[in-house]
Design brief:
This protein is of the alpha+beta class. The chain has a single domain (2-257), classed as Deoxyribonuclease I, Chain A (4-Layer Sandwich). It has six helices and twelve strands. It has a six-stranded mixed beta sheet. A hairpin with a 7-residue loop joins strand 3 and strand 4 (65-70). The longest helix is centred in the middle third of the chain and has 21 residues, at 116-136. It starts with a strand and ends with a strand. The model has no long low-confidence stretch (mean pLDDT 98).
Length: 258
């Protein structure tokens, strides 16, 4: 079973790129982030025509997450994280598909930092950590995927060079500490586990020719609980998607479970 994550950076403007990728990669489950569209304007007809059922949590102009399933209808479990009833951001969607639990995550960026946006990022991260603890202990396979907006380390496998990113929220000690505490629950980082020390970037900024220079970051992650990790077969990045006409600034990442 192939489970993928893709920050589409606007599903309306990148719909053709999304449909191309679904046809080529054929993921059984595809989790999307940064839809930037309302629930009412989600392109369900096009998604269904591509052979996928969908559940989504939209927000006009910002955020937004979705779970797609090839030849099946995902069953929604949770929309939004617990812990803050006043949080209106569409950033978390949990569903059951093909016998496993999957969550599509769009963690706050947090820039500029310090400031209220960074405080919100850290508070949201704490809520994710609290909610993920029980999921990690589940007997059935659980996969938490998405744009975590965290570069795990300064190593070449995670970032081309940290020099110009030192003040960015994605590299701050507090962000990385939250990431490590999440993993410490028992989650397996599929990409890092199978490709240690290898540049496996998932994001290239539109500016400063970062795509052509392969000046990327690894910020889209696929985390597996113990039941899922036992079935880990392969993982990778569909980086060629980033090089197409009018692309997202992210490339899809995926994991295959036996």
């Amino acid at each position: 079973m192939k489970i993928a994550t893709f920050n589409v950076n606007g599903i309306t403007s990148r719909l053709q790129r999304l449909l191309e990728w679904l046809d080529e990669s054929q993921p059984d489950i595809a989790c999307l982030q940064e839809l930037k569209t309302s629930d009412a304007t989600f392109p369900l007809q096009a998604i269904e025509a591509a052979g996928y059922g969908a559940v989504w949590h939209g927000q006009k102009g910002f955020n937004g997450v979705a779970v797609l399933a090839r030849g099946a209808q995902p069953v929604e479990i949770r929309r939004g994280l617990p812990g803050d009833p006043d949080d209106t951001h569409s950033r978390y969607l949990e569903a059951q598909v093909h016998g496993l639990t999957v969550a599509s995550i769009y963690l706050p960026n947090g820039n500029p930092q310090p400031g209220p946006k960074f405080d919100y990022k850290l508070a949201w991260f704490e809520r994710l950590i609290q909610h993920a603890a029980a999921l990690c202990e589940a007997r059935e396979p659980v996969v938490l995927v998405g744009d975590y907006n965290v570069v795990p380390s300064n190593e070449v496998g995670d970032i081309y060079s940290p020099k110009s990113w030192l003040d960015d929220a994605l590299l701050q000690p507090e962000s990385r500490d939250a990431w490590r505490r999440l993993l410490a629950q028992g989650w397996t980082d599929a990409i890092a586990t199978l490709h240690p020390g290898v540049p496996m970037y998932t994001f290239w900024d539109y500016f400063r020719n970062r795509w052509s220079r392969n000046a990327g970051l690894r910020i889209d992650h696929l985390l597996l609980n113990a039941a899922a990790a036992k079935q880990l077969a392969s993982a990778g990045i569909d980086r060629e998607v980033r090089g197409r006409d009018k692309p997202s600034d992210h490339a899809p990442a995926w994991v295959v479970l036996k």
